[in-house]
Amino acid sequence: MNTVSTVSGSDTLAPGARPTGCTNLKLRQLMRVVTQRYDAALSGAGLKATQYALLSCVVKSGPLKAVELAELMRMSPSTLSRNLQPLLAAGWLQTGQGTDARSHLIGATPAGAAKRAEAQRRWRAAQESVNSTLGPERVQTLHRLLDESLALMTA
């Protein structure tokens, strides 16, 4: 059954009605499909979507502490640590000395910056595919709803 509902006002709830279904399930289902599309595109660069996002964040933000990177990525320190390992092992990211003996900074290597540039072309193709499938207006609306929801859930 392939039904597409709009994100316009035509699907508004009647006064007093409550949403039905599990928001978590619906988000996970969408994430699986979207992640598969990005993973397929990025596989040619040897990256998964999660790895590309992490590498991009480090390349754009410059060397930063793990706790700062975890905050930017909105992930737990343990999840960050697991996701960093393949990027460190590949030589795309490196850890360096921080401002004191106990702190370390995570930065991109030249090979990491080059890998990100290679993967960015593939990421762009995946993004264009999503835009084409969903339509630019729906993607913009989805981004807005996700940003607003994330702000509300983390307030």
From TrEMBL:
It holds the Pfam family MarR_2. It comes from the Bacteria. Residues 24-151 form the HTH marR-type domain. InterPro entries: HTH_MarR-typ, MarR/SlyA-like, WH-like_DNA-bd_sf, WH_DNA-bd_sf. SMART domains: HTH_MARR. This is Transcriptional regulator. It comes from Hydrogenophaga electricum.
